[in-house]
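S., here's the first fold you wanted:
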Amino acid sequence: MVFNSYAFFLILFPLFMVGFYMLRGRSVLGAKWWIVLASAVFYAPFGWRNCAVLAVSVAVNALVAWSLAGKRGKSAAVLGCALVANVVALLFFKFSGFFFPIAISFYTFNQISYLVDMYRGEIEDFSLLDYLCYILFFPKILQGPLMGYGDFARELEKAIGTDVRGKSGNYDLSSGPVGDDVSEDRNSGAHAAVDFEIVMRGLLLFSMGLFKKVILADIFGKAVDFGFGNIPGLGSLEAILVAIFYSFQLYFDFSGYCDMAAAICMMMGFELPLNFDSPYKAVNIVDFWKRWHITLTKFFTKYVYIPLGGNRMGQARMYLNFMIVFLLSGLWHGSGWTFIIWGAMHGVLYVLTRALDSQKKTTANISVKTSANTIADSADKAHEDATEENRGGISEKLVHGCKVALTFIYVTLAWVFFRANTAGDAVALILRMFTGGRRRINTHLSSCFQLDEIWYVIKVTPIMKMNFAWDICLWMFLILGAIMIFFAPTAINFSKKCRIGVRSTLLTALLLVWSIISFAGVSTFLYMNF
């Protein structure tokens, strides 16, 4: 099941929320089982093969976690075998061509994280029910975010009213007191109450995420499919547009999912970690990876980069570790040279950027140490800074804009390899940007953006007589997408800070209705394939 489906939005989602509001603060055990049941129903429509792989994976990892828990004795050999088994299973399904289980990368990484944290003592004891809640939790199982168990347990306590603490700020969610009914909890009334303002903010955020996915990402996706399927026939402008359209499709697909997942959790009183923070506003590739799939970056940092030595073994080894992480990130997304090239492109620029920043810091430190610290020098420097501040407002914005634009261009070119079927197709599309010649935009490409509800309005206006009429929807979507990506606040920030009233309610209703009537062309999320 996916968020952008009638079954979820009209049946599972409202039933889950009603049941959750009835149980939270009254029965911890009931609320947890309700989460597990809803998550199982959410995943079940993906078919018995996907469910079987998930069930076996959860069962085996739960048994290993139980063996590592508490005072039973932590065996490095058991942990090592479990980690190898998880990685081998993931690689088998990714590269064998047998079939690719939905969300296997995400729930496998969560289980690896759980086992390692259990071995390290960051999780004190094991409870099967809480383990199931953590792994199966439906808002995050398909595309993340990747969330450590300690953070998950903390948010689960906040949402349902648990009051049992474990080691080092984590929560002991083992059998026993946690499994008991806590209807007498002094906070139960507060947890049971429904905060309608939070519900409205959650619905607003969900509607914006749904709009991003159903209206924007899927429309851009149609144009992308046409473009990558007709590379030899593209003109230069068309090739450039197709590459930009794919960047936009990925953005709205992934951020739309993150918004909807966060919205569901917001209405539960559960806060997911930020996973997507306007990445195309990044000024360089390092900044980009602080904004794109944030929790995946943190996972690779904690469980790959640091165990490899991090920055503790000199700069050369640090840069090698960066490249290993990015190549693994490429392989995580898929098999084939296209993903390896994508990972290498990001890794090389990341290393170069870090090396350049390091050189600048070294030069700046030397300059500070060798400069004269006289009163006259300080006065002159202050005057220069003040003058530059008065003059540099516009220039600084231009420099910032150029950095953002160059970073976006590089990321977009890398995405071409990410999307192409072969490296040859990716190179061919990039070459078409320079050799395709000047020509009008193909009507098949333009027609991908002609939604009936917009196109009918255009057809009855004088605009229809203009030469650009067939392309107007394309440019409307492109401009709207650019404004949302580069200039607008994030949907999460907007939903948290906006005033809840008539206008926000109308906006929510408009986006929901528009998106729901477009469910006929239901599509899956791109990152479910990774």
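And the second, which I think is the more interesting of the pair:
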Amino acid sequence: MNHRTVSAFVVTLQVAFLLNLPLSSLAQSANEALFIVGGKPVDKDELVYLLSKGKSSDTQTPGVSREEFEENLELFINYKLKVREAEALGMEETEEFSREFGSFKETLIYPYLIKNSLEEGELRKAYSRMQEVVRASHILFQFPPKASTEDSLIVLKMALKVKGEIENGGDINELAVQYSDDPSAKANKGDLGYFTGLQMVQPFEDAAYTLQAGQVSDPVLTNFGYHIIKVQDRRPNPGQVRVSHILVRFDAADLTQEENARRKISDIYAEIQKENTVWEDIVKTYSEDPATNQRGGILPWFGVGSMIPEFEMGAFSLSEVGEVSPPLKTQYGYHILRLEEKKPIASFEEMEESIRSKILRDSRSGMIHSQVVAIQKARYGYVEDETSVRSLTQALNPVPKANFASTVSGQSLGKSPLFTLQGKTYLVSDLVSYMDGEEISPKIKGGTFDIWFDRFVSKTLAQAEESDIEATNKEYQMLLKEYRDGILLFSLMNQEVWEKGISDSLGQVDFYRQNIDRYQWKNRVEAFVVKVLDPAHTEAARKSLQGNGYSQEVIQKFEADYKANATLAYQTESGVFEYADHPVLSKIDPMLSYQEVQLDGALYLILIGQKMPAGPRKFEESRGLVVRDYQEYLDKNLIESLKTKYPVQINPQIKEEAFLALNQ
């Protein structure tokens, strides 16, 4: 062994003795680690990860230079020293750390979860469907209340019968009037107008988007019953429109009233065609929509599927901004529309959160959850004890939650097996422990055991997935460690540097006195600087300033006058300046009380007052700078003390491997 090897080996022995670690495992870690700090090995991958992450993707030069690498390695060592000290001080054990780190973990792990990838697929599918709008008609066949299996079959047979009639030439819209249980079918004959993704229940949407124009679906089961769907048209999504409108109402049951409304809207339309007619005036005078007639009839932005079909088709038929539609009839009355604006469907990035929100509120969320659970069960070896669960279902489903634990205890069911996951068997006693302190919405219906068993399985599978990701996903491990160490670093720095630097007033004063040479004024001068923005007011400024000398009275009078009479003529600043560093005052003769300076095409009129020679700043004048410098001093001292407390041993071979990894 050479001298360097012997020294490293002695340090390893000392660390192993102090920490009561097996020498063999520590030596192995030391051989594989980039460096050892306070008995803890630091892997080179952590340095490579952090430096790669910090390297800008648009940098022209790939990798890092040797000099950059050495500088970053030194910073990394200092960072790990502070983390090691925070660990030694028990900052990882505090409630505040647990709360903050736990919150970060929930956010950080999400992109790695099975749920996220499935949600992402649904988001993309929904957005892809939104590129198209579909016009469809349907006939709904509802189940009778408390329908039996036999009742359901009868409804299905009726749906198949009507489908056959359509395929044999029957008109779905006429058949909808005859057969449909949809209350709106009497008015719209089953025509739903145009719709796009996420505007219908999922099974209905899935079926409609698989059909081409003219095709008829098999019966589609939704929560409403069975549907027969015929797609009438498919076209690109026109995006959104904003229109204003004029409304004339009528009572649909009164034919005379409807005829009068029709004549009135025709007269209004003729009035609009006249030259010099003002749309807003017509709206205010004639429109019977109180929500919009005082503001030009303007309506919010809307897309396909947001308005009643007749209104929507009229709005989207307008192509030019300002174009006015002929009168159109809806259930609310007669309308005239004017196009105000149009815009295409937004990008995926802009719509992502709103799509996610809609998906998580409809049946897709349940579908995603079921898929997640199925994948987790297969991946982590879930085996349910079906016999035991069947028996427990009968025994415990009728038992209220409040009596669940006592019933389990009274019937000695605590050791009954539920399922095995990753080799571990979970018992009813585990379910009882989980139920303690948990609550479920009263809207959730079902037997007590069924509800809580499903939740317990989901929770246990989710914990297994998170543990698996934490144990096997290198990227997540690095990200988690980065945040964990970052919280510890912040806690230590806040305690030992930042807060101390702000609150330690005696230390600040002592540091100021020992470093007084840092806090010096250069030659200063009182000055009033007037930049002339409008040359037409130059002479007026000269008359106000020349011969008056520098004083607060002169400054206040000048500023009051120009702000009252010529607010855009000048730009001013006044005070005490280190004039050698000032862009304008650096050009002056400090001995002249009034002077003019031309700089970058602008004229400056300047009054000079008292001159102050270079000298030390007072502590109060320097406190902000002193606090900053004192914090830097505390940080430097902290690092030096930690290097003594936790000797760092770098492995040259692993260090070189890290450098090469960053330059591949």
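Why I say that: The CA atoms of residues 39 and 399 lie 55 Å apart. The first helix runs from residue 3 to 19.

Talk tomorrow,
H.
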